[in-house]
Amino acid sequence: MKATYNKSKIMKNAWYLKKANASMSFSTCLKKAWRNEKMAIMTAKIENRPMEEPKVAEWKPLANIPADYYGDSRTYYGD
């Protein structure tokens, strides 16, 4: 099965490395971030851990929105 990578996580890791080591070029930081992600996936496979992160509970909008939240809506002009 082909591994899917969280590119957002990799870019954040690369920027973190760049900020921590100002003397390194960004391309070097990006290479290290990719290597770190690939190593993390390989380690997860070796240790028999799931590769994807657990999903966060879905956000569900309020079922009952109070109709009179702002009082008399004719006098409300926005935040």
Q: How would you sum up this structure, described in words?
A:
The protein is flat and about 60 Å long. It contains 2 helices and no strands. It has 79 residues and is mostly helical. 44% of the residues lie in helices and 0% in strands. The chain has helices at residues 7-20, 26-46. Helix 1 (7-20) packs across helix 2 (26-46).
Whole-number mean pLDDT: 80
Which structural class do you get from the secondary structure elements?
mainly alpha
The coarse silhouette is: flat
Portion of residues within helices: 40-55%
Spans of at least 5 consecutive residues with low confidence: none
Largest sheet: none
% residues in beta strands: under 5%
H/E series: HH
Can you count the helices? 2
Put the structure in a nutshell.
This protein has two helices and no strands. It is mostly helical and 79 residues long. Helix 1 packs across helix 2.
Keywords:
flat; single chain; 2 helices
